[in-house]
Amino acid sequence: AQKVTQAQTEISVVEKEDVTLDCVYETRDTTYYLFWYKQPPSGELVFLIRRNSFDEQNEISGRYSWNFQKSTSSFNFTITASQVVDSAVYFCALSEQGSNYKLTFGKGTLLTVNP
Amino acid sequence: KAGVTQTPRYLIKTRGQQVTLSCSPISGHRSVSWYQQTPGQGLQFLFEYFSETQRNKGNFPGRFSGRQFSNSRSEMNVSTLELGDSALYLCASRRGERETQYFGPGTRLLVL
């Protein structure tokens, strides 16, 4: 069965600090997709990034970067020079080939960026 | 392009009542999935609809049902509400099989 673990329940940083959110996944499938979503207090899940299992290239988008390592089944997310607006709950999610209709989510990490 | 919309945004019901939530997907998206989010269980998959057919269902009792219309809009219904049904209900739409799911703002349901 697939599983996503986000060991960090809450992280609190001061503005401009860098912060890394950890995500470890379990799957028996060889083809799968990994995602990160952001959930601000309003509740909507905002899509941030998607990676497929064949693409281990790291990605950078502005202050955001993602490190995908199949060898350790991890898909970590780093925010550089954090800002107050980054405060939210961040979810890592997994979908397997053949069941792309269903996302398996981690429990989420609450990030609080203090001014 | 407009995002996924959900109505109503907030709802208060009492035990035993039933409720219907609505989701309008992004234009051109034919698949709609529903999720329940609670503090205890996190985000859990409810069911998925594609072309007016329920293709997949999560581990929820039969009180949870849904449907999809020809314009891809979807509704979910919960009958005989229980206190434990209090949650944020999120729907997500996607264009095709390997596409990303995009979520709506959710409906917050409180059962008293």
Please provide a written account of the structure.
The complex is a heterodimer of chains A (115) and B (112). Chain A has 115 residues and is mainly β. In chain A, 0% of the residues lie in helices and 53% in strands. Chain A has no helices and twelve strands. Chain A has strands at residues 3-5, 10-14, 19-21, 24-26, 32-39, 46-52, 59-61, 64-69, 74-79, 88-96, 104-105, 109-114. In chain A, strands 2, 5, 6, 10, 11 and 12 form a six-stranded mixed β-sheet that branches. The radius of gyration of chain A is 14 Å and the shape is globular. The model of chain A has no long low-confidence stretch (mean pLDDT 93). With 112 residues, chain B is an all-beta fold. Helices cover 0% and strands 54% of the residues of chain B. Chain B is built from no helices and eleven strands. In chain B, a hairpin with a 7-residue loop joins strand 9 (87-94) and strand 10. The model of chain B has no long low-confidence stretch (mean pLDDT 95). The interface between A and B is medium-sized, with 21 and 26 residues.
